[in-house]
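Next comes the chain:
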Amino acid sequence: MSEHNYDVIMIGGGPARLFAGIACARNELRTLVLEKQTYPIDKACGEGIMPSGVNNLMKLGVAHFLEKYPYHLFKRISYVSAKGSVAEANFAEGCGWGVQRTKLSAALLECAETLPNLEIQEGASVACFLEENPEVSIKNNVFHPKLLIGADGLHSRVRKLANLEATIPKLKRWGCSTSF
């Protein structure tokens, strides 16, 4: 069994974690992102990046990778309740970008692959031990990060191991997505 050390390990590699991994790597932190699926990852989401998110993508150099994919600018947002009430507002900070989640995921991955301090492992089946110091095992490798970020979804194994279990409300949830 070989041992590796990272400053940061993230379990779960959705867009927010890839973005965080890029930010860590750009700040010279040796970072590992472990994702059980393979990229690009698709699931229903709003597929909109708010103006502050667009600004952050630009600051980290991700926007360059995203600009080659189709996206749509939007300058306002509207919420409509089930009873028909509407709340609308224009953005003060600029435009947001409407972009397919798979395209955002692909652009983040492309950017991440250019960074020497960032490693991404897809198809990762992970075991974690959090007794005293975080330990992450994958295949025949053991990792001892300074910081472990569990971002492995609603039913997070990492959250349970860290005894951070929360009561999750039994809400009806569904999602759908389409692109034109």
